[in-house]
C-alpha cells in the first residue's frame, strides 16, 4: 500500500503520545499519513494506575485513535503489529490476525514506545504484571480486588496474610502512585464492605533497589514523598534488590547481602522499561547504535544517522539524557511532523530538537501530591490541585475529561470507586495460575543465585 | 461456616436481581444473611448490550455487590461458585480458586438465574458468544469493533464483506436492541472514521425461527418494531432456523425446507436461556420437577415442594407462566425475604406470590422505542423517554446513574461512544480462533443434518 494520491506519504508507527501528536501536526497538511498501531486506542498512560485500582474505566484513558483524528482527513489509521521495517525499500510490514500489510513511505516516524523490562527475568512477568497496557491494568485490577475477595473466605491465617500483602516493585512515579492507591482503597473504599477481614490491615510494600523514592524529583521531594507514603501506611523498603518472584512471594536482597522473602499473592512490576525492539531493528540496518535499554542514538534532529527520512521519537530515543516521559514524546512527535512539512515547503530546517522540561508530578494520596516544575518544588494540597488540572488538560478529548472528572469526584469526594469490575478471565483464568498456596511456604532465598542478582542490578 | 450469632441464618445464592433484592429486604433485620455469588458484582443485565456496543463501561452496569449492601451490617457477601446444595443437611458448598467453603443455612433463597442456551449445540458458543455476562459483552465489543478494524486493511472483497456482516440470532428484546445498536454505531459513530471502507455499508441481520420480532409485546408493537428496525437498515429474517454456526458463517433453514448460508465473522447469540443447573440439583433431591429450560416447578409461595425453608426466585422458576424478566426476580426476591421475616416474627403468611407485570420496553434506535405497559402500548420518542427514565431509576446506585446518564448524552446527543476499548485478549486471543478465512467459502448447508435442526426448534 502506498499513497494513492501521489502525495508525499508519511508513515507513523505507534498511537501513543509521539505518534498521535505527529499525526495531529501533519493533519490536513499537503501529505498523506498512515498511522499503524497494534492497539486501536491512544493510551493515556499516566493514569493507567487509576484503571488498575478501580477509579477510571478503560474508555476514560483510552479513546479510539481513529475517533481522535477523524477530522484530519489525510490521516489513515490501521491496526497492525509492525513486524519489519525495510529501510532500503522504505517499507513497513505489519500484521493483524492473518492479514499481512506492506506500507511504503517517503518519510517515517517511529514512535513505538517502550514496554516493561524484567531485566532478563521474563518469567517474573507471569507473577508480577507490568503497568504498560490496558490488559496489564485490567489484569491487576482483577488481582487486587480478587485478593480481598479470596481473603474474606480464607480460613488459613498464613494464606490470608499473603492475600492481604501487596508488593509494588519500583519507586518511580508509577510505583509510588500505585502503592498509594492500593493503600487508599484498602483503608477508605473497602472500609465497611467486609465482615471477616479488615481491609485496613492490608500490608502495602514499595520496594526499590535504589536508595530513594522518586529519584528524578530531587532530594527534598523524595524525602517528602516517602514520608507521605509512610503516613499513609505504605512500607517503603529501599536498597532492596528483587532477586526472584514466584506465585507466593518475592525474594529481596538487602544491602548486607542477606536474602529474605516477602510472602505476597499480588505483585506489581513498575521497575524498568525497555524500548520497542524496532529500535534495534533500525540500528542493525543503518549501522547506528542502541543503549542497554534498547533506545536508539539519534541525530540532534531526531533522525536516524544517514537516514534523514526516518525520525524516532519518545521512549525509543537516547539523546542528551532526555527522560522517558510523555512530554518528550509529545514534543518529539510535533517536531518530526513540523520538520517534514518544512522540508516539503522548501523552508529551512528548524534546528536541533530541544526538550523543554515542563516539570513532573506524582500523587501520593487523596489531596496530596509532589510537583517539581522548573526550579519550583511544591507538595501537599496545592500540588494535588496542580496535578489534577494538568492531567485533565493533557487528556485527549472533551468527553474523556468530563467522564474522568466525574469519576474523580466519586473517588476523591465519595471514597467510592465506580470501576471495580473484573472479568472471569481476569479473576480466575489468569489468577488460577496461582493457587492459594500452602501455609508452610518454602523460603525463596534457598533458590537465590548470583546470576539473578546481576540482572536486577539495573532495576533502579 | 454457620451463623456466628446463633441467629436464624439465611443463605442467598446469586447476586442478580433476585438475590440482591432478597438481601436488601433482609438487611438489618434480626437474621444473619450470607450471599454467595460467582461474580463480585451485581449485573444490570438489561443494559449489557450497551457495554458490548461501546456506550457504557462495565462499571456502569456492574456495581460491586458488597459495596451495595455495605450498610446492611447483617449481610455478608462471599465469592464462590456453588457446586452443591445438600438439602438434607442444609448446607451449600461453594468454591473460589482452591478454597472450598461449606455454609449451613436455616433458610435458603436460590436466585442463580439463567445462562445462554444453544439448544444442545454448545459448539456454537465459540463462534457466537451469548449476552449473559460482562465477559460476553466485552468479548462481543472486541469482535464488533475489531471486525471494522480488520475490514479496513482487508484487500479481499469476500473477506471484507464477511467482516462487515453482523448476524444477531434471536429477536427478543436483547437481540432487537443489539441489532439496532450495531446498525446505529456503523452508520453514525463510525461514519467519518475510516478511509478505505464505508462503515455505513455494514450489513446487520436479525434472524429468528419465530414468525415475528418481540413476540411477547403483542402484534401491533411487533410490527412497529420490525418496521423501525428495517428503516434503520437492519435486515429482519423471520421463520429462519439456525442449523449450524462456524467461524465464517451461519446456516439457516427457511420455511420451504431449503438451507442457505450467511457469511459473517461476527455472530451474536441472543436466542435462548437455560436455568441454572442448581434447579435440577434441587429437583433431584426433593423429587420435584424441572421443565425443558431447567426451571423448577415451585409452590405458589415460591418454595420447593416439601421444603418450606427453600425459596427459588427469578429465571429459575416455572410458575403460572410468569415470564423470565427482571421484575419477576425483583418481586420474587422481596417476597422470599419478607416471608422469612414474617415467619420468624410469628406473623401469618403473606399468601401466594403474585407477579405484577410492570410492562416491557425495548429501544430500537436513538429516540425510538416500543413500550407496553398494562394495556397501553406506545412507540417512538415518548416510549424512548419512558425507557430512559425507567432504566435510570431501576439502576442500583446513584453514582452509576450519573455516569450512565453522562455516557448516554455522549452517545445520543454526540453520536460518540466513550467505551470502545478492547483488550488484546478480546481482539486477538479469542478472535484468533477465527482466522479471516478463504475467499471461496464452502457452503455450510452441505453439513446440515436433521439432528441439528431438531435441537434448534426450541429456539423461538
Automatic annotation (TrEMBL), chains A, B:
Q: What is its EC number?
A: 1.6.5.9
Composition bias, Acidic residues: 448-460
Q: What is this protein called?
A: NADH:ubiquinone reductase (non-electrogenic)
Q: Which InterPro entries match?
A: FAD/NAD-bd_sf, FAD/NAD-binding_dom, NDH-2, NDH2-like_C
Name the cofactor(s): FAD
For the keyword Aminoacyl-tRNA synthetase, the answer is no
Tell me where in this chain the FAD/NAD(P)-binding domain is found: 9-333
- Region Disordered: which residues? 436-460
Question: Membrane topology type, per the record?
Answer: Single-pass membrane protein
**GO molecular function per UniProt:** NADH dehydrogenase (quinone) (non-electrogenic) activity
**Looking at the Swiss-Prot or TrEMBL record, what is one Pfam family this protein matches?**
NDH2_C
Primary localization class, coarse = membrane
The residues that cross the membrane are 378-398
Keywords from the UniProt entry? Cell inner membrane, Cell membrane, FAD, Flavoprotein, Membrane, NAD, Oxidoreductase, Transit peptide, Transmembrane, Transmembrane helix
Tell me yes or no: is NAD among this UniProt entry's keywords. Answer: yes
Amino acid at each position: 500500500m502506498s499513497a494513492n494520491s501521489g502525495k508525499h506519504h508519511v508513515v507513523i508507527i505507534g498511537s501513543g503520545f509521539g505518534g498521535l501528536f505527529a499525526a495531529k501536526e501533519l493533519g490536513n497538511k499537503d501529505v498523506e499519513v498512515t498511522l499503524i498501531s497494534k492497539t486501536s486506542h491512544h493510551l493515556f498512560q499516566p493514569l493507567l494506575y487509576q484503571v488498575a485500582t478501580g477509579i477510571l474505566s478503560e474508555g476514560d484513558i483510552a479513546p479510539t485513535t481513529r475517533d481522535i483524528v477523524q477530522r484530519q482527513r489525510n490521516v489513515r489509521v490501521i491496526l497492525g503489529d509492525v513486524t519489519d521495517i525495510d529501510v532500503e525499500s522504505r517499507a513497513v510490514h505489519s500484521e493483524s490476525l492473518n492479514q499481512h500489510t506492506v506500507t511504503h513511505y517517503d518519510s517515517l516516524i517511529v514512535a513505538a514506545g517502550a514496554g516493561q523490562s524484567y531485566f532478563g527475568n521474563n518469567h517474573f512477568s507471569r507473577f508480577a504484571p507490568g503497568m504498560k497496557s490496558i490488559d496489564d491494568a485490567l489484569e491487576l485490577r482483577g488481582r487486587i480486588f480478587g485478593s480481598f475477595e479470596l481473603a474474606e473466605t480464607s480460613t488459613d491465617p498464613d494464606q490470608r496474610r499473603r492475600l492481604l500483602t501487596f508488593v509494588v516493585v519500583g519507586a518511580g512515579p508509577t510505583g509510588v502512585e500505585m502503592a498509594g492507591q492500593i493503600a487508599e482503597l484498602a483503608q477508605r473504599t473497602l472500609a465497611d464492605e467486609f465482615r471477616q477481614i479488615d481491609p485496613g490491615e492490608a500490608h502495602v510494600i514499595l520496594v526499590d533497589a535504589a536508595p530513594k523514592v522518586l529519584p528524578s524529583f530531587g532530594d527534598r521531594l523524595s524525602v517528602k514523598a516517602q514520608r507521605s507514603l509512610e503516613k499513609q501506611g505504605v512500607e517503603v523498603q529501599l536498597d532492596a534488590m528483587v532477586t526472584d518472584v514466584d506465585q507466593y512471594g518475592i525474594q529481596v536482597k538487602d544491602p548486607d547481602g542477606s536474602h529474605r522473602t516477602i510472602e505476597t499473592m499480588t505483585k506489581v512490576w513498575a521497575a524498568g522499561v525497555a524500548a520497542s525492539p524496532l529500535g534495534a531493528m533500525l540500528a542493525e540496518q543503518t549501522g547506528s547504535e542502541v543503549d542497554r535499554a534498547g533506545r536508539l542514538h539519534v541525530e540532534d534532529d531526531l533522525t536516524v544517522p544517514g537516514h534523514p527520512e526516518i525520525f524516532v521519537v519518545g521512549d525509543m530515543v537516547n539523546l542528551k539524557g532526555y527522560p522517558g516521559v510523555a512530554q518528550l514524546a509529545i514534543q518529539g512527535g510535533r517536531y518530526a511532523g513540523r520538520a517534514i512539512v518544512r522540508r516539503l515547503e522548501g523552508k529551512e530546517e528548524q534546528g536541533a530538537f530541544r526538550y523543554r522540561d515542563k516539570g513532573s508530578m506524582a500523587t501520593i494520596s487523596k489531596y496530596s501530591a509532589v510537583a517539581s516544575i522548573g526550579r519550583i518544588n511544591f507538595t501537599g494540597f496545592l500540588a494535588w490541585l496542580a496535578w489534577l488540572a494538568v492531567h485533565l488538560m493533557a487528556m485527549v478529548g472533551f468527553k474523556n475529561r468530563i467522564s474522568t472528572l466525574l469519576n474523580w469526584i466519586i473517588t476523591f469526594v465519595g471514597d467510592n470507586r465506580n470501576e471495580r469490575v473484573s472479568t472471569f478471565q481476569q479473576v480466575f483464568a489468569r489468577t488460577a495460575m496461582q493457587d492459594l498456596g500452602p501455609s508452610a511456604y518454602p523460603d525463596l532465598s534457598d533458590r537465590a543465585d548470583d546470576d539473578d542478582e546481576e540482572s536486577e542490578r539495573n532495576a533502579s
